[in-house]
Each structure stands twice: as C-alpha cells, then as structure tokens.
Amino acid sequence: MVIPAAIVLGVTILTAEEAVIPPSNYNVGVRFLISPPLPTDNATAEEEERYYQWLTSEYLTNGMADWANGIGFAEKVSAKTAERGFEVDPLAIFNGTSADAIRSRLTIIMNYGDRDALQAMIEAAIEVLEEENGAGIPHLGLESPAEIVLLDRPVVNEVPASIGNQLDLPVRIVLAVITGLLIGFLVEYFDPYVRDAEDVRHKGLQVLAQGEPKTIGRDLRAALLLQNPVPSSVVIGGTAGTTFDESSLYVAYELAAAMANSGRKTILVDGVLSNPLMHTVAKVDNQSGFADSLVNNAPLRLQETSVKNLSVLAGGSGAVDGRDTDGRDLAASPNLPGVMARLKQECDMLIVVAPPPKAGFDAALLGAHTDGVVMHVERGLTWFSAIEHGQELLDLGQANLLGTAVT
User: Fold this and answer.
1) Does 377 map to a domain?
2) Which of 60, 162, 225, 396 is the one with CA 20 to 30 A from 45?
3) Which domain holds residue 43?
4) pTM above 0.85?
C-alpha cells in the first residue's frame, strides 16, 4: 500500500505548481465623490433647475456604479490603458473590476496579475470617469454630466495568498496519501494472487518451507522429517494454474537431492506425463519410464543420477501402444496401485512430481497412493481460487495434504 500512496503523492506534488507557487495578484481601490455640475454665476434658469433636480447625487452615483461594472466602461479603460503602453483585454478588466455606490460616494476596486499594468488601468479608469462620465448617464445627453472628485491616491497592493491557497498543497498531500492508501488497500483486497507465505497461512494452510525453487530442498526436507509420522512417500503438486509450471520440477528435485544427501535411498518420479521434463533437470534419458510401467506393467526403469542415493523414474515416451499418456487413460490404469507399491519397496523416500489437482492424472490421484501431498504455491502466479480448488480435489481424492512449499 506504500507504493501506490507514494506514486499518487509524487504525481500530486509534480502537478501542484500553482499550489506551491500561487500566481501573483494585485488590487487597487479609489473613492470618488460625484455631483452634478455646480451652476456658475451666469447660470440660466434652466441650468439652475437641472442643478436642483440633481441635488441629490445619489441617483447619479448609482448610475456611475452601474456603468463602471459594465463591459462598455471596461472597453474605454482598455483603450486608455493601451495609450499608457499596456495591452489589457477588456474582458480581463471587466472581470477584475468592482464598483459600488453609497449615497454620493463611488468606490472602484480593480484586480490584475501585473502591478505596472494595474497602475496604468486605475489611472485610465480615473481619466474615463472624469472625462467621459456622460456614457454612464446617456439619457441626459451631456458629455460629462457629473463632477468627479477623487478622494484617494491610487496605491497598488499585492494581495496575500488566501487561506485556501495556503492550505491547498497540504490538503492535496493529505488527500494524495489517503487516496494512495485506499488504492493500495483495494488492490491488495481484490488481488487474486498469492503474494507471500502469510497469504497462504490466512487460508488455513501450513507453510512447510519458503524460498527459491532451487534452494528450498533442505528446508522442506527438515519440515517433512518433523512430521509425525514421518512420510516415506510424497507428491509435489503445483497450483499455478491448469497447466504445469516447471518450477515444481526443481522443488521436487531439490527435495529429493536433500533426502538422498541425508543417507536415504530416494526415488524421484516424473508424474507430469502430458509433458515430462524431469529427465532434463536430473540429466537422464526419457526413452521409457513411468508411463510404460503404468500401461504395460513394465519393469521400473530407474536411472542413477550424479547425486548419491538418488534414482529417477522418467515420465517415459509421449505415447505407449497408441495410448494418450496425458492422464485421461492412465488415471484409470489398473497398474497404478501396483507400480506405486513397487516404487515404495525400492526406496526409503519416494517423491513424485505431479500436475495441479484437476480431472485426470494429477496430484490428487497420485496423492491417494502416497503418505501425502505438498502443494507448491508460487508467489505472484498462484491464484487463491487455485488453492481452494486444489484443496477440494485433494479431499475428494482422499489425499492427505501435508502443507505447502512457497516459492
């Protein structure tokens, strides 16, 4: 579960540039007092009437605020900003401008990501308000129907990162760790494969030995010799799938060699008759062997090996008297009990390597003629369902399951 969490965390950090270094942002705000033009000494009666009509400048201020919040104002500010050397999209000005009216006071706040450009934008906005405010009250028909009094000097300020931006990266990290752990948990929970010996123990099976196929022999021998009673005939059966995996050959051979090295006369039998390969591991020939004895009740053709006290009965030729030796015929061979009995009489320890339990000539069938079966479990290859199915078939075949060898 640690690896998925680390992967998700790494991806999160690599893609969180904006969270680590949030983009700079600046704002500036100014206030204005707005009133209709003051009448002059020479004002006409019509002008004085207009003055008194607009004495309450609140209406005028509200009109200016509505105008300043619109795209038309933004376009005029964009044009003035361009005259100052900064090209700013009117939509950017429109989205970054906020105007509010309180009685006769107008407040404009602008936001942008470039300090100098924002300074030019607020200066342009002031100029537009002072010189072209007639666009805000177009029905009066005047170019500048309002007197604009600037109350503040515009000062551009950098906006500090918000609490949300400051917490963004820590929150992403926490969520990444939780997500990674959750992914790891789900992968492990739904993983159909056996990953280690502990997985086998969780299935209620005894782990006799664990290690590499070519080095597990001595540990497996020690575990079998601690059994009570000590078995004198054992089947090594695979579980990696419906087909035989060659690593079981090495487990069986290493166990046989370890037994032989301890002074026991040992016979190793290749029971994988659909594809016999033990002769390649033990370096003997495959001209005849187990299949021949089962079909014709032929004498046992035991071949000596380079290991003292170890003999091998190879699988035999691919076909004997026209029979299919993949197990369908040999499973019902009447010679099987007698052949197995003769093999036991010839040695102190009989070891038979067999295919995974299934219908036919397999570990379940051969296990019924021995003291027990050692189930070979391969990490990353053996399915949990294969173990469960193998146990069921061994029970049906009345074979004794001694335990497992995990490689």
Assistant:
1) yes
2) 60
3) 23-158
4) no
